[in-house]
Design goal:
- Helix content is about 30%, strand content about 30%.
- The model has no long low-confidence stretch (mean pLDDT about 90).
- The chain has about 70 residues and is of the alpha+beta class.
């Protein structure tokens, strides 16, 4: 199984949490097949909003969600 990674971000209520303000307006950067590519996309997106403390981008490891128990 491919190790899929999703990179997305948006405005958060508190920069120390992942409590996104508006789920309908998340910035979906993309899906990537390896962590290195996902990290590069995350760094690029986060750098664009570095001066806005309420914007947060994350990498989600989808393969962990897709694996059955």
């Amino acid at each position: 199984m491919a190790k899929l990674h999703l990179v997305f971000g948006g405005r958060v209520k508190d920069p120390q949490t992942l409590d996104f303000v508006d789920l309908n307006n998340l910035d979906i950067v993309g899906m990537f097949e390896d962590f290195a590519s996902a990290e590069e996309a995350w760094r690029s997106a986060a750098q664009r909003t570095v001066d806005d403390a309420e914007m947060k981008y994350v990498v989600v490891h989808l393969q962990k969600l897709l694996q059955s128990d």
